[in-house]
């Protein structure tokens, strides 16, 4: 998808949720995508249907622009269309363009650093070591690298590369790494879901309800700023809680093994 040319939080007069005025061609131009992409998203249920006007011409509004922006944000974080479809299904059906703009701001500010594509030589330089085929398989199992089929390159999560390179020297079986990753993903996803629910119900909802002008773009910026300030505290709390829980579990396991 091309770069989104109109931020969802810019609630301009043309194409508001209450008065859809954009044709499919105008929506595609504003969103920086093709008409074919819009129709494909519609068939997948990623976009709500347009409002049918005179001569059966479909009209789109700010809510469609906002949802396209959110879809692009999720794609940039590495989510597949199937995963995005499941993600959007969990959102309330009556979310306004403003709500979607806040949601996109939260997703963007909480998302990890984007992965980078690089050739093997650059990957090894950043890892600080030569990488064998087995090393690359282990890094792939950890979710650190993925081979790009279109070229002789790898997609690398630069935030995990240093840790992954250190773990290469730890005598852990490939299957164990895969099993551990599955456990971590499952439980961290559940934690993220619950934290997102708390943020929506206890922070986002009350904040939105007490504002006199829910379409004010400044409110979106305020939510994004709040989320950015919360992120390091939440991450630190999760890491600390996990460390304590792991220490207790290991202590209990070794006690029974004695």
Key phrases:
258 residues; globular; Multidrug-efflux Transporter Regulator, Chain: A, Domain 2; two-stranded antiparallel sheet; three-stranded antiparallel beta sheet; disordered N terminus; 10 helices; mainly alpha
Tell me the layout of helices and strands.
Layout: H1 24-31, H2 35-44, E1 51-52, E2 58-59, H3 62-76, H4 81-89, H5 97-110, E3 116-118, H6 120-127, H7 133-141, E4 145-148, E5 153-156, H8 158-167, H9 174-210, H10 217-257
Antiparallel strand pairs: 1-2, 3-5, 4-5
Structure description:
With 258 residues, the protein is mostly helical. It folds into two domains: 24-111 and 178-257, Multidrug-efflux Transporter Regulator, Chain: A, Domain 2 (Orthogonal Bundle), CATH 1.10.1660; 116-171. 62% of the residues lie in helices and 6% in strands. It contains ten helices and five strands. It has a three-stranded antiparallel β-sheet. A hairpin with a 4-residue loop joins β4 and β5 (153-156). α3 packs parallel to α5 (97-110) and α5 crosses α10. It is globular, with a radius of gyration of 22 Å. It starts with 23 loop residues before the first helix and ends with a helix. The model is unreliable at 1-18 (pLDDT under 50).
């Amino acid at each position: 998808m091309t770069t989104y040319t109109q931020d969802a939080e810019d609630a301009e007069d043309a194409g508001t949720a209450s008065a859809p005025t954009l044709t499919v061609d105008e929506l595609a131009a504003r969103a920086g995508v093709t008409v074919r992409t819009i129709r494909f998203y519609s068939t997948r249920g990623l976009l709500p249907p347009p409002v049918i006007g005179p001569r059966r011409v479909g009209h789109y509004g700010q809510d469609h622009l906002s949802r396209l922006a959110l879809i692009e944000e999720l794609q940039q974080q590495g989510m597949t269309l199937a995963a995005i479809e499941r993600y959007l299904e969990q959102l309330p059906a009556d979310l306004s363009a403003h709500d979607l703009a806040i949601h996109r701001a939260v997703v963007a500010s909480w998302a990890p650093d984007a992965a980078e594509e690089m050739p093997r030589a650059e990957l090894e330089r950043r890892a600080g070591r030569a990488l064998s085929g087995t090393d690359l398989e282990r890094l792939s199992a950890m979710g650190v690298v993925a081979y790009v089929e279109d070229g002789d390159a790898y997609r690398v999560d630069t935030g995990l590369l240093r840790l992954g390179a250190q773990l290469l020297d730890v005598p852990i079986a490939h299957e164990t790494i895969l099993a551990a990753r599955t456990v971590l993903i499952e439980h961290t996803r559940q934690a993220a879901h619950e934290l997102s629910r708390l943020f929506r119900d206890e922070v986002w909802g009350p904040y939105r309800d007490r504002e006199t002008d829910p379409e004010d773009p400044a409110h979106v910026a305020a939510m994004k700023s709040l989320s950015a300030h919360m992120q390091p505290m939440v991450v630190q709390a999760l890491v600390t809680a996990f460390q304590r829980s792991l220490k207790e579990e290991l202590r209990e396991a070794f006690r029974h093994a004695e």
